[in-house]
Design brief:
Blueprint lengths: L1 H6 L2 H8 L7 H5 L7 H5 L7 H15 L8 H35 L16 E8 L5 E11 L6 E11 L10 E6 L7 E10 L3
Parallel strand pairs: 3-5
Antiparallel strand pairs: 1-2, 1-4, 2-3, 4-5
Amino acid sequence: MAEEVTNETPEEGAETLEPDAASQPEAQAAPKPTAEAGPAAEPAEAVAPKERRRRARTAKSARGPVRAPRTPEERHEERLAERRRKAAVRRLRRQRERANARASRTAPATTPPREHEPGKQKTRQGVVVSDRAEKTITVRIDVTRRHPRYAKVVRTSSTLHAHDELGDAHIGDTVIVRESRPLSRTKRWRLVEVVERAK
């Protein structure tokens, strides 16, 4: 056993591995520390984090256009010049808007007359759904409109009570009612005419 240990010494194993260094890429990738590498690493100074950030900012700003330091008066003049430029842009935009507003005002009015104005009463057309009460009819007003955002046709209905002095309208009749003064707790409308009789 002693002979085996003496036959395989670490020096002999190292000698056999050195010529075959090409077969081990790890050995080539890892640099071996030498006496020359030690002094070369020492001159690299230890930089504080703040100083490192400052140098990074300086290097980043050096890539762009370099501007000389300016006095507060020069910066103030630059701000005033920028304000004057923006004011001119705003002035032109407002002039265009005023011109467009004048042009739209001179155009003929295409808005339909309002339904309800001072001295003008609302009118509605609907179907009578009840005539049981004395001199009163219940009218269903159907409203069909297109939704402003989703463009879906929305159908809704509401009921109102109208005064029918002669008892002329009956269930199923299509009638026209007009707004009036309060006639009772729920009646604010008056029968104008029966458009179509129920079949």
